[in-house]
Design brief:
Strand order of the largest sheet: 5-6-7-9-8
Radius of gyration: 47 Å
Largest sheet: 5 strands, mixed, barrel
Length: about 1000
Amino acid sequence: MKSHIHMSSENGRNEFSQSKNFSGSLKTLTKPRYRLTRLGEQMARLPIDPKIARILLAAKKHDCMAEILVIASALSIQDPRERPLEARDAAAKAHERFTDKQSDFLAYLNIWDSFQRERDKGLSNKQLVQWCRQYFLSHLRMREWRELHHQLAQTAIEMGLTTKEAAFRQPPSQEQLRPSESQGDQDLAAKLKQKQLDKKQHRAQIRAAKEAGYEQIHRALLTGLIANVGMKSPDGNDYTGARGSRFHLFPASALFKAKPKWVMAAELVETTRLYARDVAVIQPEWIEQEAPHLVRYHYFEPHWEQKRGEVVASERVTLYGLTVLPRRPVSYGKVAPEEAREIFIRGALVAQESNLQTAFFAHNKKLIKEITELEHKSRKQDVLVDDEALFAFYHERLPELVWKDAKGGVWGSEEGGQTQSDKTADQNGQANQRNAGRVAQAAHADSKDASNREREPSSHTRQNVSDDPKPKKQPASQKGRLKPLPLADIRTFEAWLKTAERDNPRLLFLSRDDLMQHAAAHITEEQFPKFWQTADGKFKLSYRFEPHHPLDGVTMTVPLTVLNRLHAPSLEWLVPGMLREKIQLLIKALPKQIRRICVPVPDFITKFLESNPDRQAAIIPQLAHFIARSAGDMRILEQIDQDAWAAQELPEHCYLNLRIIDDGGQELAGGRKLHELQQQLGQAAAVTFRDNTQEFERDNVTTWDIGTLPESIKFARGKQQLTGYLGLQKEKDGRIALRLFDTTEAAEQAHRQGVIELMKLQLKEQVKDLNKGIQGFTQAAMLLKHINADTLRDDLTQAVCDRAFIGEDELPRNEKAFKEQIKRARSRLPAVKEALSRYLQETAAAYAELNGKLGKHPLTHLLRLRLQTLLAAGFATRTPWAQWPRLPIYLKAMTLRLEKYSSNPARDAAREADIQELEQMWQEKTDSLIKQGLPISDDLAAFKWMIEELRVSLFAQELKTPYPVSVKRLLKELNSLN
């Protein structure tokens, strides 16, 4: 608790006290060493514990004197509640009417109010004694409590702490719930609802009034009980208190079960454990506000924060070693001005992590960017000066502190804010005061740890309780006109800059000489051009020196329209300034006996480049020929394995990086391998490449009168050369058209369907007969009733046509091949139709049998999902022809699985888990290929049917499989599919 005895200052008033010897004569005249403060004198007049006295004085500040007088007098006597061993439970139950869920202190108020209400009823002394016995209260202690309360109240009134009317507490009136005035016109339901709302509002009013008084009372209590606060341990039921103590809540406390996070106790009593008695819930913020002289401030993690525009640190507040507030952001400039100024310079100015809108900042930022680009081009960080040089530049020009005058101006020195008349007036009388102010400011800054880990209680706190009755006034120049400010935030910096630039507008402007370590004359535009020039135009080049970064090296931005026009060999030559390093690395990759021919390497590279190699052809063949010519022996070419040489991986920056953009400038893809980008963006290029391609396309094709279709076709779009693929396609309206596609896969898929539709036109009679339905269709449609009959008929027709018209044959691309395909289709159609009819009837019968047995079987949900996969709408065209005979087998296997399930459900679940793991692996591999835009191989597509065969093997082995299958075999097979 705050000390209220102060040493007198040597510069204070000359007060002397006389001390007498035993004979009564004057002995010496001495200065008093200690003297009570005004607060101490007031506490001395109160005949109670100093802690309780301090609480009473705080009650005046918080306007809760009546309540605190009751609680203070209660804490000064023995607890009036009785808890006899033979009736402990009865006493606890009787005391429940006085308890408060948040505070044991308020229980005293409740006892006081209850007792006062009984007295106000005019009860006799005997009746009061009886009432006290009923609620296990000591009547003698109640009398002692009231007498002490009366004495404290009289003393408080005499000291002027309160008035007679406010000193004595009156029990609060217990307002009854009043019904709403509008209930008379309401029906019964409305009245009940209104009654509930009135109750809720009444409770809210009582709660609000209680909370308002709660904080006032407990803040006052906290001033005297500050050493008895505690925070609940995160890993136990005990509490951590001041100076490392650990205590438990007393079991009789109303808070014993709730165990709030922060508590305050009237006393700590040690028995078998250290117990806190009479506790209450508090907020940790109150501790700092009520005892600022006792808390300590610790600062850590100082840093520049761009969003706030100032140097910020984290502050931790502790009381006697107990953390009150673990972390909060504070402005660091007020704590450690010098360190905050350095962080400000390094963060806001050197690192340019600020939003300054000033001329010098924009100039310096642009200049640094230009010099950084030179480093990126030369791939050496030896041009731009380091951060320490930039820091020294700003450190030399920025003041240690700035001073704010009465008009709001901010100056770099104290004298800058004064007029000439002020300086003359202050020259003699205030020079010392100004120096003293500077020393005090430096001392205040030094009192905080420079590394911000802790701050001692500051000097201004002690001044608040100074014993000097007439403190000396500060001179006007110090107090009103000039105010020192730390230079640690954007606002203060901008205000200072505004005044500083009046005398020197270019005070903080950097020059190229300030930033460059050497001239960098070799970094020219010829060596590092800004654009890549081709026949299609020029494309922007950008440079970056950051190894392992995706953009390390030189990057060319290319529009999508000219991607296919780029020539890979020409990109190998990079730019002149980076070519020599690449050739040097290529030579280094050669065998030693060949590498000797190129010594000295720099001279050899110079000769090679002077020989005017073809920059539209690949580097390695030309370099190999030059090595052989230099050695005078062309047989050396046979010793150079150019394929292995080309396969040698060079650093990433030795390959030109391509950034592909669309017409709007948005990046579509990027990379260093041109062929991969051209494959990847074929789909995206399809959006624009079909413009102006009508000369290759035709609508409404009814016969093969389109000549021979080439495998691919190249065409020009502006200055762009594109490659397309022709194929027949069935349009949405059912007509057939000749279209240009951007990928071979899309063209082949559309061409297959287009050829089938064109063959249907040539085989009208056969198709008409097929559309009437295959044999047994009606019965199958009734069994497969989950699929619409018309949808099923069309699906089956398409499956028959696909198998009979094309099957495994190569797609026709000319009229002769088309006519031969029609002849084969006529001969195959009856057999395909008859086979599909048989497969369909077997499948429908197996489905009907399975569907009838599902019911409420545990496997019903799982098997219905399988049926949805195998026999959903469109299954006829999705099912490969080779799998049609197996469809009924798969369904029969499900039926047998149902029958066997009950004998061993665990075995069934284990086998299903193995199958689902395989399915998941297959699905992930398939999804990965689709995501990469890669085709799914036939083997990988067929793997899902191998999983169906595995189901047959595991759940219905008696049905047999066409080839051996097991979980281990399929895992091996899946791993081999790349």
